[in-house]
């Protein structure tokens, strides 16, 4: 493309933005934008899944290590496949999970980029902050799930009665672990959602504090759901950081509400002063 053509293209783009400063677009273009964002997200997940195939063997060895440790300690335990095609299905599932985790910064960004044109400048700033906090917290939640995983597996195997064997199906076993990781990752995002709603003026800090008992109950419920059977260690690993994050989220919401109240009071004072000053002469307008 020549310099003249590039200059003309930029001018046309600038004219479109001038005519449409709010970033509005017809429904057809809106759907096309959504399709492009989804395609990019799926491509990122697919590329991550390709890398997941290379990590499949070491990852499976790490996931089944607790069962092997229980077997070395004298328990009759092993992860088994019930059909011939199960190992291949398992490889696809694990690789896809790795792709979702590895590509999380990309598909989270695509979700933000789709919503951003309809946001105001301050709302875009909040969206960027949400994205910057959501990605590491989601990965931190997955890491906590990984930390909890050996204790959770050994906890359940310990309930096997004497004289009985515990040979869990690989599909069921891996599904349980993947749900555990995702539960931890999603749970770590909840405080960020609270702060985001507060920044948009939907959820004041006073409302969160007023219903603190519900917050405590929800955290305990999430921790219990992430620890089937009531494993106390798993519940503690998830509940403790969640309580800290929710406390930090409430603090941030309170600070933001105070800032918003000061700004509103200042605008009210300025408005009263302007009204008291009376109308300005036409030559000053």
Automatic annotation (TrEMBL):
Residues 1-26 are annotated as: Disordered. Part of the twin-arginine translocation (Tat) system that transports large folded proteins containing a characteristic twin-arginine motif in their signal peptide across membranes. Together with TatB, TatC is part of a receptor directly interacting with Tat signal peptides. GO terms for molecular function: proton motive force dependent protein transmembrane transporter activity. It is found in: Cell membrane; Membrane. Keywords: Cell membrane, Membrane, Protein transport, Translocation, Transmembrane, Transmembrane helix, Transport. The chain crosses the membrane at residues 38-56, 94-115, 127-157, 177-200, 212-229, 235-255. The keyword Ribonucleoprotein does not apply. The Tat system comprises two distinct complexes: a TatABC complex, containing multiple copies of TatA, TatB and TatC subunits, and a separate TatA complex, containing only TatA subunits. Substrates initially bind to the TatABC complex, which probably triggers association of the separate TatA complex to form the active translocon. InterPro entries: TatC. Coiled coil: none annotated. One of its GO terms (cellular component) is TAT protein transport complex. It comes from Micrococcus flavus. The keyword Oxidoreductase does not apply. GO terms for biological process: intracellular protein transmembrane transport; protein transport by the Tat complex. It is a multi-pass membrane protein. Belongs to the TatC family. Residues 9-19 have a biased composition (Basic residues). This is Sec-independent protein translocase protein TatC.
